[in-house]
Amino acid sequence: MFKDFIIYTPMYITLFWAVMLLISKNENNRAKFFLGIFMIFAFLLYLSHAVFFQEIISVYPVFDSIYSLSSLSVYPLYYWYIKLLTVETSYRWYNLRLLIPAVVFFLATAILYSLMSESERLDYIYTYLIESKTKVTHSNIMQLQRIVYIGSRLVFTGQVVYFLIFGRKLVKNYHKEIENFYSNLESRSIIWVNMLLYSLVVTSVMSFTLNILGRGFFVESAVLLFFPSLIFSVLLFFIGYLGYLQNHTVVDLEREGQNSMDYPVKNNLNWLNSKLLELFVEEEIYKNHDLKITQISEMLNTNRTYISKHINTEFSCTFSDFVNKYRIEEAKRLLSDKSNRNYSLNYISEKSGFGSMGSFMRVFRDFEGITPGQYRDKIRVNGN
Q1: Are 174 and 347 in contact (CB under 8 A)?
Q2: What are the phi and psi torsion angles at 301 (to 5°)?
Q3: Handedness of CA 362, 366, 370, 373 (dihedral sign)
Q4: Which of 366, 362, 360 is nearest to 335 (CA)?
Q5: What is the CA radius of gyration of the chain?
């Protein structure tokens, strides 16, 4: 019973999120729908694992081919998902080329199994897949199948490195874009995608280790199987959960940018600095919790890209950090005021221009190194 629970849990999680994500199709959020497709392939991967660990020998050849297809598809599909979050506003079918290795190894594995005799299949399954014995002499076709299997694992390792590097780069560039467009990043940030990329690397190392040891190493021990199953299950659950909650993508960013007017550039640095100070110091526009750089460009009748670059170079920060500096100073002023001591931190957060308490706590800690509550206590002690 315990072993069944361990084996099937990743399957149930991926199937659940596949259904949830696919039925939530939205034209403005193709990434969410595509994550559902990723979950289908993850489900096939763990279905093939389940067949193996339940030792259903009769269907091993079929599911070993499915294992090659699904294991070599999950990283390319996750990378495609990241592209839909960050740079692509529609499905670009040239991305299908990312799946070529998966299809090639799937076909090669399936064809070689079909060419084997029944005894060769059983011999290959027990010596290579279950017991992982490499120093055994077998027929040429069995040795060729082993080479194909090793080749697929080497390609998988290359995928891990490639998609980690380029996936991380896409996420980094996207964050730079939204930080220079919005003052409030809540629900727009996809930093969790980066975290999950690194988590996938950890699980990939585990998968690679499992392949070296032989999946048979885990067949007899539910305890040994428990740890990779738990990690995979937790990781997949959070990929699905966070992906389901993520409603902001590059589609929204482009749409909001296109809706703004294109003003001419005003190349007068002194004028721009004075106008920015006027808006933030005198008019206190930072108290608008969803302030966007397009609103600043409309107020100043100048190009938003120019303002963004000016803030980046002149103040050495992003638009989001520029606005939040004023919000933090306002929050510190309110926290230091004795007349505000009975007001809640939520009240201070709203009055300072933050969109939520969570955003206020995170930004304040990033700027000051302590929480707003600790800052207030520190002021009280110093005041006394």
Answers
A1: no
A2: 55, 45
A3: negative
A4: 360
A5: 27
Sorted by sequence, the CB contacts under 8 Å of residue 307 that are 6+ apart come out as: 272, 293, 296, 297, 300, 319
Token pair recorded at residue 128: 């290579």
Q: 273, 285, 287: which is closest to 349 by C-alpha? A: 287
Kindly report the number of other CB atoms within 10 A of residue 309's CB atom: 13
Tens digit of pLDDT at every position of the chain (384 positions): 667 778 889 999 999 999 999 988 666 678 999 999 999 999 999 999 888 888 888 899 999 999 999 999 999 999 999 999 999 988 999 999 999 999 999 999 999 999 999 988 888 888 877 766 656 667 889 989 989 998 998 898 888 889 888 988 998 899 899 999 998 888 788 777 777 677 667 766 766 666 566 555 666 666 667 777 888 888 889 889 988 888 888 888 888 877 666 656 666 778 888 888 899 999 999 999 999 999 998 888 888 888 888 899 888 999 999 999 999 999 999 988 888 777 888 999 999 999 889 889 999 999 999 999 898 888 877 765
Burial 130-165 (b: 16+ CB within 10 A, else e): beeeeeeeeeeebeebbebbeebbebbeebbeebbe
In the block, which residue shows the tokens 């001419």? 264
Task: List Cβ neighbours of 377 (8 Å cut-off, separation of 6 or more).
Answer: none
Is the Cβ–Cβ distance between 232 and 203 less than 8 Å? yes
Give a three-class secondary structure readout of 61-118.
HHHHHHHHHHHCCHHHHHHHHHHHHHCCCCCCHHHHHHHHHHHHHHHHHHHHHHHCCH
The HSE-up count of residue 350 (CA atoms within 13 Å, CB side) is 4
Collapsed DSSP state (helix, strand, coil) of residue 182: strand
For the beta carbon of residue 230, count every other beta carbon within 10 angstroms.
Answer: 13
